[in-house]
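Internal ticket - ligand job 270, zinc ion:
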Amino acid sequence: MYGKCGRFTVEKPMVLGHEASGTVVKLGTGVKHLNIGDRVAIEPGVPCRKCKLCKTGRYNLCKDVFFCATPPDDGNLCRFYTHAADFCYKLPDNMTLDEGALIEPLAVGIYSSRRANIGLGDKLLICGADIDNNRLSMAKSLGADYTIKVTTSDPKELANQIEDVMGCQPDATIECSGTDFSMRTGIYATYPGGSVILVGRGSADAEVPLTLTFCFLFSYPAAIEFIKNGFVNVKPLISHHFALKDTVQAFETARSRDSKAVKVMIHCDQ
Ligand SMILES: [Zn+2]
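stdout (structure tokens):
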């Protein structure tokens, strides 16, 4: 048994799954905003609601958080799953459950952009797709002005290449790979006074000072509005579909570069 995500270490078997949607089949007493049959997106982190951080509106920093598929908490890759009702967000009629599952990564993007104070006209560097040709071409097709395939191991050299390609230093960087190399590159590349947002998590001992947080803070309603109104189309990101019984094959596909997988859906009702 091995595996790590930031400060969390896998020590015993656990249920995976933290990007999920589902249909309500049972309600706890007192739940007023949902009905049986509602389709919902599940925000995977449920904080304690009692500590100072929760009470001052920074629940993503709560130390006593339940987070799906983060040791020791089980995830929601299963047929029936119980979750705090106030962290289940009802999906509009025009949204599919597939889109509902992608509310989670979209909410990460929205929260990261808010933290970076990105505004109209700002130049943005996003690190994370930069060693995979398929993901780079997808980034281009979904709106990136430029893409750069990383070929150097020197973060300063890469920062210079980025400035050459963009014609300027980015106002903000959103680092999604979780590698120390990419974190350092983002810091070197970003315009002085700009923001470097660390989304990806790799080693717990990164050579830059970090306070690890979860990447939401009430971004689900905005993510749902984005898809509902057609501002964002998450469907192109869904590359594969599997039934729950084929979960192992789904994970093999997700980790294979040759499969060109981006987001792999596992359907728990099949
Ligand atoms: Zn708390």
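Auto-summary: The chain has a mean pLDDT of 91. Residues 1-101 form a domain with the Quinone Oxidoreductase; Chain A, domain 1 fold (CATH 3.90.180.10).
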